[in-house]
Amino acid sequence: MNLDFSQIVPYIPFILEGIWVTLQFVIVSIIVGFVLGTLLSLAKISAKKGLVYFADAYTSVFRGTPLILQLMLIYFAIPQLTGYDISPFLSAIMAFGLNSAAYISEIIRAGIQAVDKGQTEAALALGISYRPMMKDLILPQAMKNILPALMNEFITLTKESAIVSTIGYLDLMRRAQIVGADTYRNFEPLLFVGLIYWILVMGLSKVGKRVERRLNYDDQH
């Protein structure tokens, strides 16, 4: 095996810059996904059939098609259809945010439905309207229960973020490809970036487990 990491040493700062570039759009995407996912989850449990059908159709489309296809459609279709030259960063946020919303909506819906129905009935009996009941009573309890699942979604997005390299976004994967093209050695930069992804995912996993343990501790005391 002929490995020579010395050639990529000058490129290490360039590669490391990709960590923040990657996390930047992942964090924004998870925020977008959380906001849209919350609205979709409320639509799914709504008494209005139109909202339920829309939310279910949205989830079906975005969970039933590849994320890379959604990314490509946004990046190439928007300029073709509208004439707007969308940037790779905005394309990534839109694709990952819209996709994540479909999964987060299911997570939040399950969390809401796991809350004791007696609390909803008691709130309605006390004359509390639907909106403040959801905002102040039901959603806070649901969020506490689904934080570990939301953390897993964040980890999944971090791993899947590598596909944005296909549209030229300078994330970790794209930087590894550039270094490989410059040095004519692809294995070493890819291996180095793979190690970075692993460290990121393991770090986020530990944070998620710590949050879960803290929530379990709070529930027991």
Brief summary of the model shown:
The chain is mainly α.
The number of helical runs is 8
Find the CATH topology.
MetI-like fold
Alpha carbon gyration radius? 21 Å
- Element-by-element helix/strand order: HHHHHHHH
Tell me roughly what share of residues is in helical segments.
over 70%
For this structure, what is the CATH homologous superfamily?
MetI-like
- Strand share of the residues? under 5%
Mean pLDDT: 89
Total strand count, please?
Answer: 0
Number of domains: 1
Examine the secondary-structure arrangement and name the CATH architecture. Orthogonal Bundle
Largest sheet: none
CATH class: Mainly Alpha
Overall geometry comes to: flat
Structural features, described:
Helices cover 81% and strands 0% of the residues. The protein has 221 residues and is an all-alpha fold. The protein has one domain (8-220): MetI-like fold (Orthogonal Bundle), CATH 1.10.3720.10. Helix 1 (12-44) packs across helix 4 (88-114), helix 1 runs antiparallel to helix 6 and helix 4 (88-114) packs across helix 6 (130-160). 27% of the residues are buried. Residues 19-208 form the ABC transmembrane type-1 domain. Belongs to the binding-protein-dependent transport system permease family. HisMQ subfamily. It comes from Paenisporosarcina cavernae.
